[in-house]
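Budget justification aside, the reviewers requested a transparent look at the raw inputs and outputs of the sequence design task funded under Objective 1. We therefore reproduce one unedited record. The lines immediately below are the structure tokens for a 423-residue chain.
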């Protein structure tokens, strides 16, 4: 199975220019391709994983991927898929975002390693040195207004309004393709479904800029589909917000749990989209869902694969350890680092007195509504300290109750957790 057939089997091709021509091009050449990532924030999210893993798929098939960081285009803002104008960030902010995003991509793609390493480029290197006259003479003259207005990224914004800044984004991205074609012999651009207009515009610029040359210009474009969830909600979003690749914004434990809780109707699709598991094994996992759904084998495999890919095997083991402890109630085996991840969103209370009475603690932390209720909760066996039931209403917290001198976890009932910190 060639690379395009594999992508098609996985459902990863949305649109492609000249399918037969691209298949022949890929079979006969070691093709250089690229995908761009604009630094519009300090972290990518899981919606970016499809294009990132696409680059890795082409690398595994023997081709040469380029991850293009949009340090220049990120200063302008892509109108694609938006109803309003983006806020413009200062150059130092965009520079900082660019470096963080490069590091996130590098964890997955391993820049400059292996026989056909993934290369990182930044379009700020060439766009920042271009003069207005160069821009208009070398690129602008090749773009008709009617042609640009016909592109969905522009036409969808005409009624709401679009600035010349965002209107010109298409030309800037086209310059990226032309620059990489000239310097790296790049002949394929990939991207999300909303990038089709920008990709084909880049192909057009390359052809027009070289129309006086005798050699045939072979450049191609390919987009991946928009990912949707079976319940109709937006992929990558939860009640708490986006699922980020930055472990400081979405901890590896939260990341692992997101994939583990994938809807049964989506799990096989996501295994095909995001992982490198062979189709034969995915088919076996699909059978497991039908015959033994309670074991959630496919969900666990998806969560494991994705956590290792984005974070590390050590991060996966930590996430699994936290999950097992929360399920069993055995909190004492967790470290302070584990607790920071696993209890990130639970109510937190800072206890200044390290040997505070349990009744006072329950009231102060608003775990129980009153001292009387606190005593009832304790005597009824509803209160757990680090997973162990405590029924002594006169109990005072001890040094042994503080995990690494930092945290105590109180549970009321079966599932209500509270995190106690100590100044």
């Amino acid at each position: 199975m060639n690379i395009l057939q594999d992508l098609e089997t996985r459902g990863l091709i949305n649109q492609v220019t000249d399918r037969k021509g691209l298949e022949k091009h890929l079979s006969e050449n070691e093709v250089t391709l690229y995908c761009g990532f604009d630094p519009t924030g300090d972290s990518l999210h899981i919606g970016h994983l499809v294009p990132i893993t696409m680059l890795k798929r082409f690398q595994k098939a023997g081709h040469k991927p380029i991850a293009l960081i949009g340090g220049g285009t990120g200063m302008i803002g892509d109108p694609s898929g938006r109803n309003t104008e983006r806020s413009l960030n200062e150059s130092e902010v965009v520079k900082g975002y660019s470096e963080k995003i490069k590091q996130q991509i590098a964890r997955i793609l391993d820049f400059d390693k292996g026989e056909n390493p993934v290369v990182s480029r930044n379009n700020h290197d060439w766009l920042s040195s271009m003069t207005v006259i160069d821009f208009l003479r070398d690129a602008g003259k090749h773009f008709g207004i009617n042609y640009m207005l016909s592109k969905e990224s522009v036409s969808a914004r005409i009624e709401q309004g679009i600035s010349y800044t965002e209107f010109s984004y298409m030309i800037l991205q086209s310059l990226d393709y032309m620059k990489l074609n000239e310097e790296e012999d790049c002949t394929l651009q990939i991207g999300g479904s909303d990038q089709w207009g920008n990709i084909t515009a880049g192909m057009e610029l390359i052809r027009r800029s070289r129309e006086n040359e005798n050699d045939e210009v072979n450049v191609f474009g390919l987009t991946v589909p928009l990912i949707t969830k079976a319940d109709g909600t937006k992929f990558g979003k939860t009640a708490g917000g986006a699922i980020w690749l930055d472990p400081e914004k979405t901890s590896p434990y939260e990341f692992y749990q997101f994939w583990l809780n994938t809807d049964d109707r989506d799990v096989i699709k996501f295994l095909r989209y995001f992982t490198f598991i062979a189709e034969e094994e995915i088919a076996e996992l699909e059978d497991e869902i039908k015959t033994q759904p309670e074991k959630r084998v496919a969900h666990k495999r998806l969560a494991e694969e994705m956590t290792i890919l984005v974070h590390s095997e050590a991060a996966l083991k930590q996430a699994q350890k936290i999950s097992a402890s929360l399920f069993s109630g055995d909190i004492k085996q967790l470290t302070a680092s584990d607790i920071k991840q696993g209890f990130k969103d639970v109510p937190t209370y800072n206890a200044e007195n390290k040997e505070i009475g349990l009744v006072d603690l329950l009231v102060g932390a608003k775990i129980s509504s009153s001292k009387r209720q606190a005593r009832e909760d304790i005597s009824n066996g509803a209160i757990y300290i680090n997973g162990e039931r405590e029924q002594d209403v006169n109990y005072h917290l001890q040094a042994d109750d503080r995990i690494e001198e930092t945290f105590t976890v109180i549970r009321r009932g079966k599932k209500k957790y509270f995190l106690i910190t100590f100044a």
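The mean pLDDT is 91. The radius of gyration is 26 Å. Computational costs for records of this kind are itemized in the attached budget.
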